[in-house]
Amino acid sequence: MIRTSTGCRPTRREFLKAAGGLAVLGLAGESIVDPGTQLACAAEEKNRGPRMKLSLSVRVAEAFGSKEKSSLTIDQLIQLAKLHGYEALCMRGSQAGIHSPAEKVREMSEKIRAAGLVVSMVTGDFAVPRNDEHGPDGLRNITPYLDLAEAFGADLIRICMKKEEDIPWAKKASDEARERKIRLAHQSHCGSLFETVDGSLRVLKAVGRQNFGIIYEPANWLIAGQDYRSQTIRELKPYIFNVYVQNHRLRTGGEAAINTWTRGKVELDHIGLWEKGGVDFVDVFRGLHEIGYRGYVTVHQAFAGIMPIETAVKRSADALRPLIHAREG
Description:
alpha/beta; TIM Barrel; 8-stranded parallel β-sheet; 3-stranded antiparallel β-sheet; globular
């Protein structure tokens, strides 16, 4: 059977190209695929759906400086997602995490499913989004996070890595996650091993697990002075498990500041996805279309205290929809 370089079933175009080469060489046969590759292939098949899918992070109801409190209930977030055409929720500790009673998680999961939504990913604690020294702790004991993901019917968990010593733990956690058909991913994020493009690629290759990848998020790389555009997306193709979108405009004297390892403190303004002067989303989605990405695009911006949440959720979806559908037809 013909397979891609990752060991997965090819698209029709890939099949025809490969078949021609095999005919010339006179080669045939069935490849043997290990369980890790099977899991990666399942994710790749999911990403070959008809189009990218919109996901709403529950972070939209968090204040920028707080990861623990939400201004909306899960019922309100479900209603917002349904009203504005999102297909999934991205869950965080502000709604439910490994600290939550199992019954609460079960009830939330049932509400989400009953609304016709799914959970695209879970972030199981507060330390991961805070990106502090305790962020990588979950890698040392991934089991509760796997339990949480299963309870929500999700196959993707966000993790955090700060030091080289986190790499072997990421390998171990990925191996345990693979046994339960769950993937792990790290966001491109300032102040982490994924602050730079080169650093991210190095760690992805060092971990070397089919179920370990990246949450591509261009705004953090904009802040860190990285080239986040199409060429980078092409380099990351085998590793992109999810896409986060938020937007900032870099400005001296801006309303907020982010600490980076490579550029020090960077001042900026928080702006909507639809506003100019921040991330070049036209080029970002050009790159995503070029690599055939068909996974979730997650609105991942904290709007509480910045602009009305419902307005931001609606305008974000309205801005993203034409970009998602740009190559259809």
